[in-house]
Every structure is written in C-alpha cells, then in structure tokens.
Amino acid sequence: MATRRKPHQESKGWLSKFVQEFGWDVLLGSIAAFYVFMVPYTKVEESFNVQAMHDILYHRHHIGKYDHLDFPGVVPRTFIGSLLVSILASPVVLVLHLLHAPKFYSLYAVRLVLGCITLSSLRSLRIEIRRKFGYHVEAFFVILTSAQFHLLFYSTRPLPNIFAFCLVTLAYSSWFRGDALSTLKCLTIATAVFRCDTVLLFGTIGISLLLSKSVSMKEAIKCCISTAFLCIGLTILVDTIMWGRVLWPELEVFWFNSVLNRSSEWGTHAFHWYFTSALPRSLLVAYPLFMLALLLDRRLWQYIVPVFSFVLIYSKLPHKELRFIIGAVPIFNVAAAITASRVYNNRKKTLWRWLYIGMLVSILISLGCSIVTFMASYENYPGGYALKALHQSVGTTNTTMDRRVHIDSFAAMNGVSRFLENNPPWRYSKEEGITLAEYHTRNFTYLLSEHSKIDGFQCLFFVDGFSKARLRIGFPPIILLREPKVFVHGNIGHEDIALSNWPGCL
Predict the structure, then answer these.
(1) What is the pLDDT of residues 137-178, one digit of tens each?
(2) Is the entire prediction scored with pTM above 0.85?
(3) Who contacts 338 (Cβ-Cβ below 8 Å, separation ≥6)?
C-alpha cells in the first residue's frame, strides 16, 4: 500500500528540484541585478540604445522627438534590440507611470529585462555544458563566471555587443548540441543585425563545422543566405523608418570600421593587447585554466581553436576594447571549467591536492580583483551622480523658476541619459560646440561641466570620479584614488541660486 508524502517532504522535494534546475541561474542573476542597482548609469558606448529605449517608451510614435535625430553618433545603429527590450519592459514602465514614479526607475526596468535575455542565453549554454561535460563542469563554469567581473557587469548594459553576445551564446549552445544549422543561423543574425564584426567568429566556426562534416557546403550556404536576407530585410525596414532614410546600419558600420579603418581614431593598442591585457583581466583565474584544458581534454580543440582564431584575427584591428571580444569569454570559461573539474576530481592525489588548493586560492583572488574592479566602476559615472545630486538639492528649495540645465560632452558620456531627466520646469540641453565664454549669454540655470571655473557662474559643488589604483603595503593592498570630475555650476544672475547654501568647490 502506497504511503502519502508529508507536506514538509513535498515542500522539501519541490525546493530541491528548484535549486537543482534554477539555482545557478539565481546566483548569476543576483550578481547581475546587484550591478544594475549599484551602477545604474550608462556610458557613451551605451548611449544610442539607452536613449532609444527611453524614446520608444516615452515618445512612442513621435519619432521627431527622438534623441538620435539630434545626436546621431558616428555611425548609425539598429533599433531592433532597443525595440525588443522596450516592448518587454513596457508593462513594468506602464505600472511605474501609473504610480507617478520617476523615469529613473524605468532605467532599472530596461536593464533588468536585457539582463534576463542575456542570462537566458547563458542558461541555454549551461544546460548544454551539463549534458555534454557533466555536473561538475557546469558548476565550475558558473563559479568561474561569478568570480569574474566583466561578463555579468556587461550583461545588462545596452551595447550592440551584448545583443550580439546573446545570439553568439545561443550559437554555442547549438554547437554543443550538434545542431550546425542553428549555430550558423544565430551567428548570421548577430552579424547582419547587431555586430558586423561577428562575421569573423562566423567564419572560424563555419570553417570548423565544414571541416568536421557537421554540415555540407550546400546546406550551409542555403541556410546562411536565407537567414541573412530575412535579417537584412527586417533591419532595413525598421531602421529606415526610425532614421528617415534607407539604411542597413551594420553595412555602414562595416564600411566605417573595416574599409575606412576610422575606428583607430578612438585609440589603438598593440597586436597582443587582447591576450596580455583584456583576456587576463576578464577571465582572471580562468585564463591559465583554459590554457591547461587544451592539454587535458582533446574534445575542446574543436571549440577552442575557432574562438581563439577569432580573437587572433580581430587583433589585427588597431582599435581594441574588451567588449569587442566578449563573445569569446563563455567558451574560454567552459575550457577552464573542464580543467577545474579535473583538478577537483583528482584532489585526493598528492600532486593534484596542491593544484586544487592553488586553484581555490586563485578563485578567491579573482573574486577580490572583481570587487576592486567593481569599486572602480562604481566611481566611473560622475555625470549621472552629479545630475542626481542637482535634482535632489534643488528639489528641497522653494522656487518656481524655469530650470535650464546644460550638460557638456564629458558629463553626457559619463552617466547622463534621458532616463535621468525630470519633468518641467526642468529643461535640458546637450548642445555641443559652446565655448566657455558663451555660456553666460545662453541663460542656462545650471551647468554640468568638466571645467571648475566658468565666467558668470558660481561653482555649486563637484562630484569625484575614479582616477587610478595604487598598490601599497598593508590592508587593503590596493586603494582607489578619486579626483573631481564633474563640476555643477549655477548662474549667478538667478537670485534663488545666490541665496541658497551650496557646498561650493575648493
């Protein structure tokens, strides 16, 4: 006769299943959400998409009010990613609007939605890792990813690289599953819509699939051409409407970066920079572990060689940033997790025991490095902190005057977005090309500027930002130095400013 399970046993079983199925996702999601709430502001690289999300949510079909028409950026970008995130976030934004919450809370909403999309793609990859390599490798993949800073910090940031990253991660999942056509489809969409430079990864993985006879040339060409036509048609349709001219954004990006090679105007690095700086900083302990994996598991060669070749080829481009190769990080983490799993399984053997202890210490050191990097990043958005402080300070004063705020390029690039703007009587300007001598003729009430002294204005307060890190003997061994970055000025011709008490600038 069957016995009935007690309620607490059923509850315990449900909880155990939930932890087993979603526990790792909760861990990664908690870290990503922590970064969102602690550092909600965005940088200039994220400017197009974050402003586009704001305009889609608040201006809707009134395209003439959109930010990109006044500040188009160096090259046009697609609206497809911003449109998708905005649609998914719109119910939350609607509730916030009904509650009369500040627009700033909508910035949390869109970034958390993007984080859910990114982490869903990582979940898909994690499940395939467990199926192909086992539970231990899955666990170490999550542990190593959690101990790193950049991947989870970037996962909620509205960069074209992150939209492409989601598709690249799905491509890896299909690759591990043995579904070559789905792999090629994901990489084709990422290349045609979000990041044209993904074509390099598409090429190396595509060659690997052909050499391993996972797909025939005829099937690959048919799949890629049909997918590309659909994607190009979609992006041209959407972006032609949004930009007001016939446009395939990634074609113009490709022409600007690769044909004209003008990306180098934003700085250059040596050929080896990705291997000697970017990857060590992003992977931390996973960097030496992934290199050891090539000696321990030959199954990885078919995955590591194409992705490593992608980074190697990309190194020829003079302008380098970590976000350009962030799509390579998950595969390197998989390789590192396989090494970590091998060390863990053999930890009772004499030599392996020391390797195991060294690995645990290295993971803790990686976590410490991530904490330091987070603290530096926290201080890296002085424009956002300055505008928030101005709103809070003026909000406590009794005044009905029109408040016109000018935001200079430095402040706009370091944390300010339309999500931070208040309703009238606040008005905002990001007009470029105004000289210091002209400000007093423009009747601005407040200025957010990188300059400490401006004629006709009183410096009300300043906001510090990250300057540099310094090593020292003692605890903590690394200290972060800050210096004034953004100065908030008030027009001395406005009586309310002259009569108010402000901290001032030393």
Answers:
(1) 999 999 999 999 999 999 999 999 999 999 999 999 999 999
(2) yes
(3) 133, 137, 140, 293, 296, 297, 300
